[in-house]
Design goal:
The chain is built from ten helices and ten strands. The protein has 260 residues and is α/β, with parallel strands linked by helices.
């Protein structure tokens, strides 16, 4: 993979946007590499139990690479690349059976902000910023931003960020609820985000079920969500991790989860 870098650090799959010369702006090669990386992570089975997504260099991801010669062709419209390239990756991230931590080490602009918001837990350094840049070039937010952003920061703030296309610094993003963990600099971010990812990677199998339950809340009625909770609780109750958790509680010790 040329534009994404993937390595496995214990139980954590660390995936980096890897085109620092253009602040990790997304082109078709990067999208192809990201799809391949996610397929490799899923092929690991239970070996990888948390995904940490970050960027190489001084940016997380600066959005779409507008100089990417392959981004469109004759007869192609602006939304075609979204349907055929971005959407399958975003759905793969949503359906991934492990927690996702995003580590925002610099600019998270345009669709880069959308990728940052895909983290179940979003970490950022104080040097990072978020930018809904689309209106600056006459486009609308994409990558699921119009779905996630109002749910994370509220309707009014989402419209403000999208229509005015102004930078949102990491500290204010933390106050607004967009960032879960804020770090002083990129060095402490790298260490802290990895520690958080390792903590999740050592958690129970139920973490993947928690992700599923929360994603389903966007489309389920209350009664449907109650039924889903019962179904997923049955699934969690059949895991070895549940048995270990109960045993550890009764023995007054820390549980040793296996992700099974």
């Amino acid at each position: 993979m040329e534009r994404m870098h993937l390595e496995f650090r214990g139980k954590v799959a660390v995936l980096k946007f890897n085109h620092p010369e253009v602040m990790n702006a997304v082109g078709n090669q990067m999208l192809d590499d990201m799809a391949s990386a996610l397929a490799e992570i899923k092929a690991q089975g239970g070996e990888a139990r948390c995904l940490l997504l970050t960027g190489e260099g001084r940016a997380f991801c600066a959005g779409a690479n507008l100089q990417d010669d392959d981004k469109s062709g004759p007869g192609r419209e602006a939304g075609d690349n979204l349907r055929h390239k971005y959407h399958p990756i975003l759905l793969d991230l949503r359906d991934l059976e492990m927690p996702i931590v995003t580590s925002v080490n610099g600019a998270a602009a345009g669709v880069g902000m959308s990728f940052a918001m895909m983290g179940d837990l979003v970490c950022a350094s104080k040097q990072a910023f978020f930018l809904q840049a689309f209106a600056r070039i006459g486009l609308i937010p994409d990558g699921g931003a119009t779905f996630l952003l109002p749910r994370m920061v509220g309707w009014g703030r989402a419209l403000e960020l999208s229509m005015l296309a102004e930078r949102l610094g990491a500290e204010q993003a933390s106050e607004w609820g967009l960032v879960n963990r804020l770090f002083e600099d990129n060095a402490s971010l790298e260490e802290g985000a990895m520690a958080l990812a390792e903590r999740l990677a050592n958690g129970p199998k139920s973490l993947s079920l928690i992700r599923k339950a929360y994603w389903e809340t966007w489309t389920n009625a209350y009664e449907q969500q109650l039924e889903l909770e019962a179904q997923l609780q049955n699934e969690a109750g059949r895991t070895a991790d549940f048995k270990e958790g109960v045993t550890a509680f009764l023995q007054k010790r820390d549980a040793q989860f296996k992700g099974q």
